[in-house]
């Protein structure tokens, strides 16, 4: 126990330096979806390689057909081994004018409740979170000269774009990656005071569709009504995706979606979740999903369809009476339980094709696909982590569901055969993917301390 | 007749200079909808003032709350007077990458059928057309030292943006503007060999709507389904605008829309209109409008609703699982016969409001509104113009309908109490409002000659 206390003290003493390191990585514009930032993503990977090597890892940025995968090993010692996963790429920052600062010039400032926050793109998703783990390793190494258990660290650069190159990488390096447990820091606490381990993850299918009509933009005065308008075709397709009760209308969409097990239903009912406050915090009040479901079910255990982007025709200032040649949309489906991502994709494509007039055509771009997943919270590693988190935060860590999709968790399970423990320190108001993303300073500091404790528990 | 022949000969001899003048004005980037081009629009107005003065007009660019109105007078002589209207502003040029040249560096080249065309933004709409009239005046003046009839020329700089400042200008200058007949050159021929006078014009109402939901962009994994998605709300609104038979569903939309008079029905049935060729030319084959109407009815005499633009969420490369804070669309309605533009606007707004959830809100921007209009083709000026056009082209000029809206024609009728004769030399494949807009060189040359003849006929 003396070792643990000394390492925790080291974390406290070294916090300013840990923040300097975090800020250095937050300044790198690692926007994976935009080819203009390719060199920045590479620079970010190189930064992590050097950083891991400074802690005593052997590390390398592995080239892929997309952005690099950083992989580091520190396998001295005995005990159960772990593979940590994080991602160093970030979402685009538009609309830039809504940021109160340069998204890539992080600052520490008072948050809405007065507590300090780290503001900047990637502060919560996922650079701030992944660095809590790296800093925990650094503190152990500094104090004891080693790590409590054999560790590998895997950092992805394409999580925000579907991560199509990671599964082949996992397959190709399976032997090198295999460990007793996977660890991921990319999820939220239950609330600002209550830590949580997420044991259910929704899956996801993402598709981009483009409707092509006339071979050029047309004047709506000459061709209006007579010529197919791809905006109208697209609006019909997207509207038809939902029925009046808020259910998704794709054929077979709810196959493999059971009612919640009674035990989980009871456990969730015991959570102090306030749907009104959850929506009120973002300026809304009416749950928009399936009419007969609670908000918690909507965001944790029910499948969804969302139109993440759509566009066609003239969108500038003023008016242009054009009928565009094409219109497109990006649609994502969150999947639960045993929904088959490939079947959902096929059903969606058939649904779209059925609604495209015979003289028009549709083009599909398929992005990532991942099944939903559940991990066994009764397994020893989960109980140990729960104890460590509860010790650090002074409240019992909760096992929760969650709406986000972390495809790599499913991939680690299916390709490497490992369970994954998802413990993260994000908060619901972190504005990830939005302007003014932030990460609570307490999340960063106590997050590092939490991993110090989890590594200690896992070694016992 | 000697005078007329001499003037026509002068037109032929001066064609190269007329083209130089046209090119000079085509090079000016007078995109009225984009504030970035405000100075260019002003420069274009100034160009016309100087040009009209060089022909002997007294001319001035009148300031308005928007872009200037150019007004020139040449009122010597006797006979029935005329007010000519044209517009010197142009549509935006995006998508720029589809142009085969700089849209503002006009060229003369072989068109698809081999005949020469003038290519560039505004070549047909409306700089090329309005210059046919100006050049006709220049030729008369050069040969005879005067014009056949007293003339005023009115050139608008906001036609492409709804022209909200023109009606107040017409009211304020009514006495100065009044004449026996209005002349407009902003319409098409029946085909490349057959001139036409358009005696029916659809009206138009244009609206922009923005749906606001959450107070920020959201992560669809955390908020999907629970939080209102403005893309989904907008898609539903836009899809609901049409029923399965292709009719517009707004309450009272078809009030004031009678069946075509038998005489007009017969006259149109006699036109050699090929719906298959009309759609085939733009790469389509299935009429998209009301199921029980002919294509000619759709584009000439039936009201329409078109989604000219829509957008919300992430539209860049790749994927971003965002639920946007807002989404918007630009919708235009073409009106016929006695439809009331204000009632249509009100019905649309009520229709939209009804479909916006109580925790979201909608914002409207109303652009122009104009009633449909018909002019008396049996009146003397129309018969004279028909004769002049038939003489020039060697085929009888047709009286036709038309799908485009020229709100100023309705304004001239209602505010100044004048009939308007619409004679233009555009062709259906001119790609106005689209990349690679062109104007046939024959349209320009014989268009000038046509106006020379019409002015002569009107003086008789």
Structure, explained:
Two copies of one chain form a homodimer. With 460 residues, chain A is an alpha+beta fold. The first copy, chain A, has two domains: 2-200 and 375-458, Zn peptidases (Aminopeptidase), CATH 3.40.630.10; 203-257 and 303-370, Alpha-Beta Plaits. Helix content of chain A is 35%, strand content 21%. Chain A is built from 15 helices and 19 strands. Chain A has helices at 2-13, 15-26, 38-55, 127-144, 166-172, 174-177, 220-223, 230-240, 262-269, 275-280, 295-300, 341-354, 380-393, 407-416, 441-458, and strands at residues 58-62, 69-74, 82-87, 107-110, 116-119, 151-156, 181-184, 196-198, 200-201, 203-212, 218-219, 304-313, 322-323, 326-335, 361-370, 373-374, 398-400, 420-423, 438-440. In chain A, the strands form five sheets. An eight-stranded mixed sheet of chain A has the order 1-2-6-3-7-18-8-17, with helices on both faces. A four-stranded antiparallel sheet of chain A has the order 12-14-10-15. Chain A has a three-stranded antiparallel sheet with strand order 4-5-19. In chain A, a hairpin with a 6-residue loop joins β1 (58-62) and β2. In chain A, α4 (127-144) packs across α15 (441-458). The longest helix of chain A has 18 residues, at 38-55. The relative contact order of chain A is 0.19. At the A-B interface, β10, β11, α7, α8 and α10 of A face β10, β11, α7, α8 and α10 of B.
């Amino acid at each position: 126990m003396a070792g643990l206390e000394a390492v925790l003290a080291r974390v406290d003493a070294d916090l300013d330096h840990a923040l300097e390191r975090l800020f250095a990585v937050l300044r790198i514009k690692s926007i994976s979806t935009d080819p203009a930032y390719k060199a920045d993503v590479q620079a970010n990977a190189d930064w992590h390689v050097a950083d891991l090597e400074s802690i005593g890892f052997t590390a390398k940025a592995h080239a892929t057909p997309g952005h690099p995968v950083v992989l580091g090993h520190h396998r001295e010692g005995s005990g159960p081994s772990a593979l940590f996963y994080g991602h160093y790429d970030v979402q685009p920052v538009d609309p830039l004018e809504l940021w109160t600062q340069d998204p890539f010039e992080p600052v520490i400032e008072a948050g809405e409740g007065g507590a300090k926050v780290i503001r900047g793109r990637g502060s919560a998703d996922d650079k701030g979170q992944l660095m809590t783990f790296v800093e925990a390793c650094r503190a152990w190494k500094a104090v004891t000269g080693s790590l409590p258990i054999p560790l590998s660290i895997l950092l992805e650069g394409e999580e925000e774009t579907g991560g199509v190159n990671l599964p082949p990488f996992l397959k190709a390096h399976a032997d090198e990656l295999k460990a007793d447990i996977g660890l991921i820091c990319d999820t939220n606490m239950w609330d600002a005071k209550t830590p949580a381990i997420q044991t259910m993850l929704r899956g996801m299918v993402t598709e981009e569709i483009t409707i092509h009509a006339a071979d050029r933009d047309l004047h709506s005065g000459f061709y209006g009504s007579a010529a197919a308008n791809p905006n109208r075709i697209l609006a019909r397709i997207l509207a038809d995706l939902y029925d009046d009760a808020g259910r998704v209308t794709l054929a077979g969409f709810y196959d493999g979606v059971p009612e919640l097990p009674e035990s989980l239903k009871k456990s969730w009912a015991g959570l102090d979740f306030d749907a009104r406050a959850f929506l009120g915090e973002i300026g809304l009040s009416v749950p928009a999903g399936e009419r007969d479901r609670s908000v918690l079910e909507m965001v944790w255990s029910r499948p969804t369809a969302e139109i993440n982007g759509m566009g066609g025709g003239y969108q500038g200032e003023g008016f242009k009476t054009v009928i565009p040649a094409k219109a497109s949309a990006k649609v994502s489906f969150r999947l639960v339980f045993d929904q088959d991502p490939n079947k959902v994709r096929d059903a969606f494509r058939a649904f779209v094709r059925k609604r495209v007039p015979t003289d028009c055509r549709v083009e599909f771009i398929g992005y990532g696909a991942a099944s939903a997943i559940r991990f066994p919270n009764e397994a020893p590693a989960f109980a140990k982590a729960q104890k460590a988190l509860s010790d650090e935060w002074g409240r019992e860590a909760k096992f929760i569901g969650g709406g986000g999709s972390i495809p790599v968790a499913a991939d680690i399970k299916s390709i490497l055969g490992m369970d994954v423990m998802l413990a993260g320190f994000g908060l619901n108001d972190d504005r990830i993917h939005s302007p003014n993303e932030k990460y609570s300073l307490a999340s960063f500091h106590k997050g590092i301390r939490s991993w110090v404790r989890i590594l200690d528990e896992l070694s016992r």
